[in-house]
Structure formats: C-alpha cells, structure tokens
Write a structure and sequence with these properties.
Radius of gyration: 21 Å
Structural class: mainly alpha
Helix content: over 70%
Number of domains: 2
Low-confidence stretches: none
Distance between the termini: 42 Å
Oligomer: single chain
Largest sheet: none
Amino acid sequence: MKKNNLDERQEQKLLQIEHNGCWMAFWMLLASLFVQQMIFGIGEWKYVAGEWIVFMCLALYLCISCIKNGIWDRRLAPDGKTNFFVSIVAAVVFGVVFAAINYANFHSAEAAGWTWVILTILLFIILFAALSFCTVLFKRRVSAMEKSYEKEEEENRI
C-alpha cells in the first residue's frame, strides 16, 4: 500500500475539489461535444479546440484549488526530485508521440528524431519550471496556513 501524505482535513478537501472539478468537466465536455457534433461534425484540430479549452480550465481549477487549500498530492512530495522525474517522463512520452506523428506524415527518421529531441527538451524545461513555480507557491501557502492555525490555537487557549 502506498503512503498517503494528506491528513484527514486535506483528504476531505481534495475529495470535494475533485468532485466539483470532475462534474464541471463532465457537463462542459458534454455540451462542447454536443455543439461540435451538431455544428461542425468530426474533423481537424479546430473541432477539438473546445475540449482542449475545457480541459485547460479544469486543470487550472484543480491546480489553483489544491494550492489554495495546501494540498499537493497523496503520494508525491513537492520537491525538485519529484518535479524532475515527472517532467522528464511527460516530456519523453510527449516527444515520442509527436515524433511518431512526424514520421507518419513525412516518412523521415531524421525529422522524427529531431522532433523528439527538440520537443522533449523544450517540454522538459517548461514542465520543470511550471512545477517548480507551483511548488514554491504551495510551500508559501502551507506556511501561511500553518501560521494561521497556530494563531487560532493561541487565541483559543486564551
């Protein structure tokens, strides 16, 4: 069994955040898909842009809500090692997918290789920077929340 880094209050808050976020995504995606099917049909990137926008809104909601409530993850620690590992895995997977698409479109192993290298490096840098920034925000928020709780406890003792 994997270690859970959250206390009971954080676990309940995370469940509430996930519940609200998932239902929001469900209804927004359903509406988006319905509109696209009725108006545009199935096709190119421009037809999935709505889902992408909804996904990004959901991702921002979950990220902001979790940081605001002092929640990082059930199992991953908010540190540079975790940020590095998550960034490198995501960058490699993303690079492989786009290299395969590039190879299928242009039938050039060299182009696919360069696509993989460039996208992997760029995405790693972007993801690592974003995760590091979120880690700093998270740690500041947790520190502020702890000070607030300590202050409340002192006031209750008096």
